[in-house]
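Working notes for the structural subgroup meeting. M.R. asked for a predicted model of this chain before we commit to crystallization trials. I am recording the input and output together here so anyone reviewing the notebook later can reproduce the run.

Input as submitted:
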Amino acid sequence: MDEKRKTSISLPAPAEKLCAKHYATVMANLTFYLRYLRRHQPSRQKLRTHNDGSEGIIIVQVYWDMETYNALHSLAFALRWSVSYLICVMLMLAEDGILPGAEGLDPEDRGLPFSNCDMEVKMWGAAGYIYTEFLLFSPSQPSNTVRTKVQKDKK
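Returned structure, recorded in token form:
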């Protein structure tokens, strides 16, 4: 099993309850949410979208294996969203009842396959770089344990 690495995400303070309530569900069904959010078109023609911090920000310590980390960063990068914003959107979807098996979902979105993120480098050098990043879905499902710790900014 891939070692979990500690990182953090920043969520709007009002999302603290959503995080406590839905984070484990979102992580347990991560591929479902990645597939569901693929409906948004990737773009390089806009600025990155971040969480609104007008009501305060909480820092959430998370532990992800590299596959989870890469999958989240791959979709966030393609959509021009921060990973924190991506997680917040997933939490709001869970709060709204968008879960595997929910009514009205595309059949593709109902499955629970796991993801595999990788990249192919076509050129990388002083003149520039060209690479393709891809996220593949497979019918297998890995065991993915999730440990979270919500921590308020203490100073």
